[in-house]
Design brief:
heterodimer; A: about 100 residues; alpha+beta; SH3 type barrels; five-stranded antiparallel sheet; globular; B: about 375 residues; alpha/beta; Rossmann fold; five-stranded parallel sheet; 16 helices; 13 strands; about 40% helix
Chain lengths: ~100, ~375
Amino acid sequence: MCLAIPGKIVAIDAAQAHLGTVEVAGVRRKVDLGLIQEESPAAGDWVLIHVGFAMTKISEHDALEQMRLLNMLGEAEQAMEEVRGYGSSDCDPQH
Amino acid sequence: MKYVDEFRDPELISKAAEEIRRLADTGRHYRIMEVCGGHTHAIYRFGLKDILPSNIELIHGPGCPVCVLPMGRIDDGLSVARDPGVIFTAFGDMMRVPGASGSPLEHKARGTDVRIVYSPADALQLARKNPERHVMFFAIGFETTAPSTALTLIRARAEGVKNFSVFCNHVTIVPAIRAILDSPDMRLDAFIGPGHVSTVIGCRPYEWIARNEGKPVVTSGFEPLDLLQSIVMLLHQLRAGEARVENQYRRVVPWEGNRAALKAMAEVFELRPYFEWRGLGFISQSALKLRDEYAEWDAERRFPIPGARITDPKAAQCGEVLKGVLKPAQCKLFGRECTPEHPIGALMVSTEGSCAAHYHYEHRKNLVSVA
């Protein structure tokens, strides 16, 4: 659980600016951007996500390398399962 | 070097390995601790031990939050879920971790409402959607995860969501390093500092390790090249007789950490006077609890908690392995009574624990080659 998942912000929620839609390897979910407000997150930025919260902005190059690392560690699948929210209908990740 | 073909820059890897051999004094044995469980997993997965000269020994530290959680805390958390009005939520990592009365998954099989969540925010969302139930989030993790729990609680309080609580097991990494350094049988030379914990706390909290204890610290990324470069940086310092904190993972770790995350943590949490760590015992000021302002969302104050204490069998030598006195396979129980399927000691519980990592990547390899 120490490893973070890279994703790209595709939209900021109009009603709640601390929420963003982030795409991780083609899968979209809502991510809380509250911890990176000082970095002024915007659509198009790449971020490292940990347990549903963006931890820091990173470059696109580093984001792709991080995804590659998760693949090499055999953790990419688990990471994607987490992004999809374990398929629980009660916990709709699209808040 | 099983996985060397997958390395991004095989040439750079070879160069870093050469540099390590050049810098390491052949007459000296180096013990370097990687604090973070993610690093431990990467070191085993990439077979870095095979690349390093034999006089550089990597000691696997306490940075696996699932491993260091005392078993009694799992029983305490699950005791709340006996109330049919309660939904118990936790990260997937927790689901198979056994308490004395079974793991969360086993409780689920017996009818307890146990659900996996990816994020504390998902647990809060579950509470919003089920106002007639109470949703308890079983929180674990170091400073990487604690800010997310804090921000979730700030949102719950601001919205007045009253059917939500947190059973807080968050721990802080620096007191655990201090406990290891204070133990009389400690034999470490230097530290590879955690990667993602440092995105939150920055590098300053490690400065006392260099200044007061004379041990170099380098915060590191998770790629094989990151880890080898960090070892190069540590060896440069050791060779020069210096002890400083350096940041190899600058592309992700800001020296001052993440101010918003630290602020959220300070608003919601305060230090517990002491907390038990599986394998290390009680460590003062090493864990977080909710401040009085958040008492309504504190599961430990809302529900009666039995306060179960379950000690590991004496034969399990987790403490010695954590301090680098013993290697995983030197523990009397390793691979016999204690396996990833039936963990007896803390470090066998998760793939980020040193014994489980050793079992998966080294022990099995040996079993196969013997067969």
